[in-house]
């Protein structure tokens, strides 16, 4: 007998107390928890996202879509970044001419990626109540690894349409078939005497630029 | 420490020495109190916590009551998304499957993200025997591995180590595992983390095989979820060509939507954060993004035995948040190693003896590693009634009875060393069933109360019990005698007290 049959057989024998005609859906689940913890205007949602991102030590910037290229250029220049990896969906004018733009190619080795200074991506959705940005590997976000290996990540969030209140509302917008990375602040550890240290393996600096028509 | 749980002494003996370790107790007190206070705050932020907790418990109950259905659904979904599913009835089989999969890749080094399931199966030791080096990449797990040590907390496994010890371990051991620590390494946490970053980056960038556990598996979609803080998880899940995930069969949630409950309750209960820094989800394989081969090893290893026990089953709801450790007065003083298992604290006291059976002295002692204060139940985000299960397991230790062991219904004998307890309980039962004898006994006790010793140094098995307990001095008058004396004449039942006592 295969291990699959053994395990499933054990499961069935273990559940002898469950009525045979009970369907999975009949085991009741109360769903009276909230889908969001407050009613907010677009502006309030944006403010809460900015506040919670900053609370987890992400650097938060705000600007209009028109100001975005200049703002990205400023941030890259402030770090002295000479090379930046950007997925194909990132517009050409978001990467300043003096910085080398490296395409997100599957053939790029982890070592090559490690040699780059920064990464610029967009996101799929951002969650105000938790200060989380979610990447789901679309054209403007790229492969999961590019937002991981470089030490400096710039992520652009478009307000108001990409910001939701809560975790339940974010999940409803996401497709589980796509690989996802949920990011709340930079990489962090508290493993040594519970002292929080930013950045062990992921980017040590996370900068989030929230663009909105009303700055 | 030798890096293995085999041959650990019983909880009372292990705790007797660990409670004398002042550094351990100081670290634990600091850690548990800090996280406890922060957790309460994080939970308070959500006005619907009670509803989320009830939903979480109900979702897990639904999963467990129909586990066969969800396992098959999960298998179909994972396979459909390009993954391969393997089934392991015990630790040995899981380790063999993983070792064979690694061998097929031709690699002899693997990187691992912290996984309780593989700790439970002793995977690292099994791989070492097969000539494969497994590198732990979580900072705390790295400290534990380099120090040839064992984890002592679910969430912060190296909490028993101070910064100066960590510096010494890094200085002495890193070089023999890969990139050495800088010569002038100090004990500043940021510098220690930087040394770990450099040491491990070399491993990540060259890794061809990654091994993980998972926090959740979504039956409907075949999606796996890993929550973490450092990014080592993301490294292991996305950079290698082959990913092998070893996951307990109970870690299923029915639908993608159900994650909305657990992704709210898990981070707040464990690290007291609104959300942990990184959550990764993947469904099978994705072209040119992440590993091209994905293997899921579904692990039983005592879980179906636990499932068969209708009282103990609820332990399988556990989402490994560690909130129960941080509020437990026994864990805070004894430390994680005393539990002799990857699962310490209150959840360990009910999970370990169920997963492993209660044949060993250690496992039979674990249901007693508690004061039954109930704090663990209060904080549990999936409402596991840990005290209820503890009492249930104590009964099994003392009385024996039927239980499922490795899928077989068996009658287990009472554990050794409880003969005296059983004798006392039998005597108590006889006394309660014979009210006249009880009344006489109480009167004798009252009249001789001045002769009652404060301590009763029992010989043999009773000694551990009597050593730490004072004997309460009997009351000058029993309740019945008092009732009879003060109200006796007016009460209808007074004349037949013996008959009412039952």
Give structural attributes.
heterodimer; A: 215 residues; alpha/beta; Rossmann fold; six-stranded parallel sheet; 5 helices; 12 strands; 23% helix; 23% strand; B: 502 residues; 2 domains; 24 helices; 12% strand; FTHF_cligase-like_sf (chain A)
CATH first level of chain A: which class? Answer: Alpha Beta
Fraction in helix of chain B: 40-55%
Regions of chain B with pLDDT < 50 over 5+ consecutive residues? 493-502
Overall geometry of chain A:
globular
Biggest beta sheet summary of chain B: 6 strands, parallel
> End-to-end span of chain A in angstroms?
66 Å
**Largest two-chain interface:** A-B, 73 and 100 residues
Per the CATH scheme, the topology name of the largest domain in chain B is: Rossmann fold
Multimeric state: heterodimer
Compact overview of the structure:
Chain A has 215 residues and is an alpha/beta fold. Chain A has helices at residues 3-14, 42-55, 68-79, 110-114, 167-173; strands at residues 59-63, 83-86, 100-103, 118-122, 125-127, 132-135, 152-158, 163-164, 180-183, 188-189, 197-198, 205-211.
Task: Please characterize this protein's 3D structure.
With 215 residues, chain A is an alpha/beta fold. Chain A has a single domain, classed as Rossmann fold (3-Layer(aba) Sandwich), CATH 3.40.50.10420. In chain A, 23% of the residues lie in helices and 23% in strands. Chain A has five helices and twelve strands. In chain A, a hairpin with a 7-residue loop joins β10 and β11. The radius of gyration of chain A is 22 Å and the shape is globular. The mean pLDDT of chain A is 96. The termini of chain B are far apart. In chain B, α9 runs parallel beside α10 and α16 crosses α19. Chain B has 24 helices and twelve strands. In chain B, the strands form three sheets. In chain B, strands 1-10-7-4-2-3 form a six-stranded parallel beta sheet, sandwiched between helices. At the A-B interface, α1, α4, α5, β9 and β10 of A face α2, α3, α4, β1 and α8 of B.
């Amino acid at each position: 007998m295969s291990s699959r049959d053994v395990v499933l057989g054990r499961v069935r024998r273990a559940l002898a107390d469950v009525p045979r005609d009970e369907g999975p859906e009949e085991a009741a689940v109360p769903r009276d928890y909230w889908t969001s913890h407050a009613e907010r205007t677009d502006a309030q949602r944006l403010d809460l996202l900015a506040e919670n991102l900053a609370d987890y030590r992400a650097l938060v910037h705000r600007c209009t879509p028109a100001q975005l290229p200049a703002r990205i250029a400023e941030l890259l220049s402030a770090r002295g970044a000479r090379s930046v990896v950007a997925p194909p969906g990132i517009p050409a004018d978001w990467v300043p001419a003096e910085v080398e733009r490296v395409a997100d190619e599957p053939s790029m080795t982890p070592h090559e990626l490690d040699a780059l200074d920064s990464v610029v991506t967009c996101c799929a959705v951002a969650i105000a109540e938790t200060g989380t940005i979610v990447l789901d590997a679309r054209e403007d976000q790229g492969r999961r690894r590019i937002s991981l290996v470089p030490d400096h990540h710039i992520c652009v969030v478009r307000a108001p349409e990409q910001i939701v209140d809560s975790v339940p509302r974010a999940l409803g917008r996401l497709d589980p078939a796509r690989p996802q990375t949920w990011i709340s602040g930079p990489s962090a550890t508290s493993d040594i005497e519970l002292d929080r240290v930013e950045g062990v393996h992921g980017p040590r600096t996370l900068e989030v630029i929230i663009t909105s028509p009303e700055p | 420490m030798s890096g293995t749980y085999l041959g650990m002494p019983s909880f009372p003996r292990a705790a007797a020495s660990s409670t004398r370790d002042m550094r351990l107790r100081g670290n634990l007190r600091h850690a548990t109190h800090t996280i406890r206070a922060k957790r309460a705050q994080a939970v308070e932020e959500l006005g619907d916590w009670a509803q989320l907790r009830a939903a979480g418990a109900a979702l897990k109950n639904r999963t467990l009551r129909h586990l066969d259905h969800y396992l098959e659904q999960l298998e179909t979904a994972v396979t459909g998304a390009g993954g391969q599913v393997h089934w392991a009835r015990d630790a040995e089989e899981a380790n063999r499957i993983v070792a064979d999969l690694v061998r097929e890749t031709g690699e002899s080094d693997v990187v691992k993200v912290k996984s309780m399931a593989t700790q439970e199966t002793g995977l690292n030791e099994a791989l070492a025997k097969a000539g494969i080096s497994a590198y732990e990449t979580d900072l705390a797990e790295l400290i534990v591995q380099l120090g040839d040590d064992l984890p002592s907390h679910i969430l912060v496994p190296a909490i028993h180590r101070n910064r100066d010890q960590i510096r010494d371990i890094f200085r002495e051991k890193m070089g023999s595992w890969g990139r050495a620590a800088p010569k002038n390494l100090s004990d500043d946490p940021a510098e220690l983390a930087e040394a770990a970053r450099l040491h491990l980056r070399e491993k990540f960038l060259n890794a061809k095989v990654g091994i993980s556990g998972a926090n959740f598996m979504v039956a409907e979609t075949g999606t796996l979820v890993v929550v973490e803080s450092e990014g080592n998880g993301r490294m292991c899940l996305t950079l290698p060509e082959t990913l092998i995930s070893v996951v307990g069969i109970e870690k299923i949630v029915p639908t993608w939507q159900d994650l909305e409950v657990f992704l709210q309750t898990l981070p707040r209960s464990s690290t007291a954060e609104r959300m942990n820094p990184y959550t990764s989800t993947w469904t099978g394989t994705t072209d040119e993004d992440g590993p091209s081969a994905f293997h899921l090893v579904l692990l039983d290893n005592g879980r179906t035995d636990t499932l068969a026990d209708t009282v103990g089953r609820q332990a399988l709801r556990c989402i490994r948040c560690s909130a129960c450790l941080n509020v437990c007065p026994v864990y805070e003083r004894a430390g994680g190693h005393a539990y002799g298992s990857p699962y310490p604290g209150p959840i360990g006291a009910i999970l370990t003896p169920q997963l492993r059976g209660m044949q060993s002295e250690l496992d039979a002692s674990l249901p007693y590693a508690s004061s039954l204060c109930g704090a663990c139940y209060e904080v549990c985000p999936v409402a596991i009634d840990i005290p209820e299960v503890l009492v249930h397991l104590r009964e099994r230790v003392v009385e024996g009875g039927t239980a499922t062991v490795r899928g077989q219904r068996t009658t287990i004998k009472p554990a050794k060393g409880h003969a005296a307890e059983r004798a006392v309980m039998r005597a108590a039962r006889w006394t309660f069933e014979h009210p006249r004898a009880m009344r006489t006994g109480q009167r004798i006790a009252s009249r001789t109360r001045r002769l009652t010793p404060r301590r009763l140094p029992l010989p043999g098995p009773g000694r551990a019990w009597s050593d730490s307990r004072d004997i309460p001095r009997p009351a000058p008058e029993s309740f019945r005698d008092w009732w009879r004396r003060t109200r006796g004449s007016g009460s209808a039942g007074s004349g037949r007290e013996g008959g009412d006592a039952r």
